[in-house]
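Example record for the data management plan.
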Amino acid sequence: MADDLSVKCCIAGGGPAGMMAGYLLARAGVDVVVLEKHADFLRDFRGDTIHPSTLEVMNELGLYDALLKRPHQQVTQLKGRFGTYETVFADFSHLPTRAKFMTLMPQWDFLDFLAGEARRYPKFKLMMNTEAVDLRWQDERVVGVVARGPEGEFNIASTLVLGCDGRRSTVREKAGLKVEDIGAPMDVLWFALTRLPDDPIDPVGNFGAGRIFVMIYRGDYWQCGYVIAKGGLEDVRRRGLQAFRDDIEALAPFLHGRSAEVTSFDDLKLLSVGVDRLTVWHRPGVLCIGDAAHTMSPVGGIGINLAIQDAVATANLLAGPLRDGTLTDADLQRLEDRRESPTRRTQSLQVAIQNNVIKAALGRRGQPVKPPFLLRLIGWVPYLTRIPARIVGLGFLPEHVDKAVIP
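Corresponding structural encoding:
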C-alpha cells in the first residue's frame, strides 16, 4: 500500500507528552503529525495538575500569561491530615521559578491550549478520531505506522514514531519493548462532589483508620479520590454505598450531606494504579516517552509533568537530527539516558511513599492513625516544606527549552 502521508515524526497519542512534543517539534521546523484517537480532549478524571516545572517551560516559550488566562486555581501549599493532625508538607512559594505555585486546570483545557498554539505552525498536523494501530517495518527499522481514522486504515511514513499513547501503549506493544512491572498497593475511586463557597481550597490528603481520601479543588466541584487497597473494589461494594458515604464524611466532615450525591457505584470511576517502566525505551525508528515509557503512581500528581519534561528533552535533542535527516539510534539512546535517571528516582520515591505511608494507612482499619515521623518533623520545622516542594514542583531534572533548537 502506498504512503498516504509522509512526515519526519509521527506521534501516537495526544496527551500531555504527545501534544507538547508535537508543538515543540513543529516550532523547531520539524514536519509532525499527532494522532489522537478521541474526537476531543474531554476525558473525566484525568490528572489536572500543572506543576511549576511545566509553568516554567511555558514561560520560556512565551505562553505563560496566555495559558493562565484559562480557568484555573493556584495552589501554594499541599497539606496532609492524619486523624485530627494536619500540617503543610510542601510550600511552593520559595521555588526559583516565575510560578511559585501549582496550577489546577482541567487537562482538556491545557491540551486544547497546546493544540491551538501548535496550529500556528505550518509543520504541525493534528488528526483527531485517529490512532496508530500498528507499526510499519523495513527490515529491523520502524518506518511509520498503520493508522485508523473515520474513513478506515491508511499508512503514514515517518523517520521517527514517537509513542505517547499512555500506559496501555499500542506503540510499545507493537515494538516489542519489555515492561518492568514495579507494582502498586492501591487503586483509586474517582468521583465528583459539589463545592460550596466557604469550603477550603488547598488540596488535602486525608488519612483515616484504613481509609485515604484526596480532594482537588475544581471551581464549583471537588474532584475526589477514595484510595482503596489494590483489587479492593469488591470489598467496597460489599460494605455498601452508605458505608462508603460515611467514610467520606468521617474523613472530610465539612462535606456533611453532600456524600449523598454519590447515588450508586456507577458514579465512581476506578483508576487501577500501576507503576512500571520500559527496560529499553526505543528501537530503530521508534521511541516511547511519558506514560508509554513509564507509568507513574498518582502520588504527587507528578506523572503529567514528568511526561512534559520528556517531551521538552525530546525536542531539544531530536529536533535538529530529525529536521536535518541525520537521526540515528545513538540520538534515541541519548534521550533515554537523560530521562531514565529522573524517572527511576521519581518512581523510587513514589514506591517508598506507597509502601511506607499509603499501604500502612490502608492496613490500619479500626486503629488509630499516626502521622509518619517525617511529616511531623516537617510540621515542627516549616523550612523543611521547601524540600518536598522542590521534588514535587520541579522534579529531579527539570528541562529547559533550548533556544538554539526551538526558537
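Summary line stored alongside the record: The mean pLDDT is 89.
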